Structure formats: structure tokens, C-alpha cells
From TrEMBL:
GO terms for molecular function: ATP binding. Transmembrane segments: none annotated. It comes from the Bacteria. SUPFAM superfamilies: P-loop containing nucleoside triphosphate hydrolases (SSF52540). Keywords: ATP-binding, Nucleotide-binding, Transport. It holds the Pfam family ABC_tran. This is ABC-2 type transport system ATP-binding protein. Belongs to the ABC transporter superfamily. Residues 5-234 form the ABC transporter domain. It comes from Pararhizobium capsulatum DSM 1112.
Length: 308
């Protein structure tokens, strides 16, 4: 698939001298949902702000739809929708005017039919004549999304869209995201909620300390992580593994009180039944069994923890 956003060797050093991005390169494919994961201060917002033309890069190059985000700012900005973390619009303006005005700011002709559809999709239509200051926090978040969609962008950035929102809004938001994606809109979201990335993204990127640590298809990542552990608690501790069990992927933990068996969930057979039979034959008595599957969170913690 062709790239819609191309980031090469991007560097950002703030006026304070702090280097928020260190040589970031990244290709975002047209039509994909990419989740960017990273702890606080990793550089996610800085990266998005540069692509959206809000922050100037210190080095490197970013293109959107083949246009340079600094030189061809107007063209790139009209292709992009950004849902920022906070609303910074005139609180005395109505919902309808705010969203319509936003479309004009991106150089698009008025289209009341489109604005009406966006407001309806976000359950905002009955609030169209209300002033922003009369809305609840959740409704204001909906207005942010409506603004970002007002000019029918090809690329949509959502910066921590679900931080502090309730279940209903979260559901509506993912519905909107899925529908947009069906229409071919490229979606990039930053999130702290790893389950969210696991649920919705096609690809996952992990960013920390201003660097991309990993970027991969979610399916591939989950396949690699598709390992499971069976923990077998023993009645009597073992100091060494009996010879009869040497053919199994087993390790001893908890001073001999537990055996850990690692197996591949994608394989046809787990080998658990034969292992349990072999344990019984070796006269090893079991107290309890439990299983644990590695998740996206495990790899995230491992990556970020190791290089923080
Ligand atoms: N205008 C600025 N001047 C100086 N430093 C800044 C500026 N904006 C951001 N930073 C610093 O750059 C680093 C990256 O910030 P950024 O907002 O991109 O991180 P983030 O990954 O979006 O974090 P969060 O998850 O907390 O939103 C942080 O250490 C932040 O303090």
C-alpha cells in the first residue's frame, strides 16, 4: 500500500534545548489505523503536531499526500483532521457555527449536509444551537471530533481520544473511527490504553524518549507474543527435573514449588495432556494449575522499561 504520510529523520529540539524527537522515520499507509503507544513525555504529541503543521521541525522532512508539511502547509493541513486533547475554541459560539467555521478554515466550501451528518453521527445534532460553554465535558469532546471531520480529511489524528471519557462516548468514537476507515480514511491515534490499540489498530508503534522503538502489524506482534505459560504448583518441592521430563520446555521456580511450562498457542497441540501424564508417571503431585498469556502490554512494558 502507498504511504500517505512519510516522516524521515525527524528531529525536534525545543527552545529549552530539550530534544523531544531524535531521528524519527515512519511511513503511514493509506487507509490503515496506526496506534502510537508511549509513556508520558515520549514525544507522541510533538510528532503529531509536526505532521499537522502546528510545531516546526528542527530537522528532517514530513510529507502528507506527497506535499511538504512546512512548505505546502495549506495543502497538507486541508487533508488532515486533528482531534487534540483539549478544546480551545470560543466558548460563546454555537456548536453548528464552530464546526462549520472549522470547515472554512481548512479551505473547503460550505456543505451544510455534511456538517449535519457529522453532528448526527456524533449525537450532537440536538445540541447544534447550544453554545459550547453550555455543554458537558463529554459533549465538548464530541465537538472536537466534529471539528476535525468538518472538512472531510483523508488523514485523521486522534491524540489520546479516550482519556477521561465515559463508556458511551468511547463506543460512539470507535464506531465513527470504524466507519471512517471503511471509507478509506487513514487514522492515527495515540493512547495509553494498550487494550484499545489491541482492539482497533492494524499496526502498532511504540515510542519512547523521542525514538520509535518498534512498529509492526498487530497480528504479527500478537503471533510473536502468542506464547502461553502454564504454572504448575507442586505439593512437594523439586530440586532438579526428573530425567523423564527432560524433553519438555520446563523450568523450576519458587524454590522448586512451581514448574513453568511454555507453549505456543498458535500450534495445533499444546502438549499439556502428555505433560500432565508424564508428571503423574514420575510421581509428582500437583497442588494447582494456572495459565497466563503474554499481551501487548507485556511487550510494551518490556520495551519501554528496558530503554527508559
Ligand atoms: N514547548 C515545549 N518546550 C519544551 N519542552 C517541551 C515542549 N512541548 C513538549 N516538551 C517536552 O517534550 C517531551 C515530549 O512531549 P510530548 O507532549 O510530545 O509527549 P507525549 O508523548 O505526547 O506525552 P503525553 O502522553 O504526556 O501527552 C516532554 O518531555 C515535554 O516536556
Amino acid at each position: 500500500m502507498p504511504s500517505i504520510v512519510s516522516v524521515s529523520n525527524l528531529v525536534k529540539t525545543y527552545a529549552s534545548g530539550f530534544q523531544a524527537l531524535k531521528d524519527v522515520s515512519l511511513e503511514i499507509e493509506e487507509g490503515e489505523i496506526l496506534a502510537l503507544l508511549g509513556p508520558n513525555g515520549a514525544g507522541k504529541t510533538t510528532l503529531i503536531s509536526i505532521i499537522c503543521g502546528i510545531v516546526n521541525p528542527s530537522g528532517g522532512k514530513v510529507t502528507v499526500g506527497g506535499h511538504d508539511v512546512v512548505r505546502d502547509f495549506r495543502q497538507t493541513r486541508s487533508m488532515i483532521g486533528l482531534v487534540p486533547q483539549e478544546l480551545t475554541t470560543d466558548q460563546f459560539e454555537t456548536v453548528w457555527n464552530t464546526v462549520s467555521f472549522s470547515r472554512g478554515l481548512h479551505g473547503k466550501k460550505p456543505n451544510p449536509t455534511h456538517i449535519e451528518k457529522v453532528l448526527k453521527d456524533l449525537s450532537l445534532y440536538d445540541k447544534k444551537d447550544n453554545m459550547l460553554r453550555e455543554l458537558s465535558g463529554g459533549m465538548k469532546r464530541r465537538v472536537l471530533i466534529a471539528k476535525a471531520l468538518s472538512h472531510e480529511p483523508r488523514v485523521l489524528f486522534l491524540d489520546e481520544p479516550t482519556a477521561g471519557v465515559d463508556v458511551n462516548l468511547r463506543k460512539d468514537m470507535w464506531e465513527v473511527v470504524k466507519r471512517l476507515r471503511e471509507k478509506g480514511v487513514t487514522i492515527i491515534l495515540t493512547t495509553h490504553y494498550i487494550e484499545e490499540a489491541e482492539e482497533i489498530a492494524d499496526r502498532v508503534g511504540v515510542i519512547n524518549g523521542g525514538k520509535i522503538l518498534l512498529i509492526e502489524e498487530k497480528k504479527e506482534l500478537m503471533k510473536k507474543l502468542g506464547r502461553k505459560q502454564l504454572r504448575i504448583e507442586l505439593v512437594e518441592p523439586l530440586s532438579t527435573l526428573p530425567e523423564a521430563l527432560s524433553g519438555y520446555q520446563l523450568s523450576i521456580e519458587d524454590d522448586g514449588h512451581s514448574l513453568i511450562y511454555e507453549y505456543d498457542v498458535s500450534g495445533e497441540r499444546t502438549g499439556i495432556t502428555t505433560l500432565l501424564t508424564a508428571l503423574a508417571e514420575a510421581g509428582i503431585r500437583l497442588k494447582d494449575l494456572s495459565t497466563r498469556q503474554s499481551s501487548l502490554e507485556d511487550i510494551f512494558v518490556e520495551l519501554v522499561g528496558a530503554r527508559a
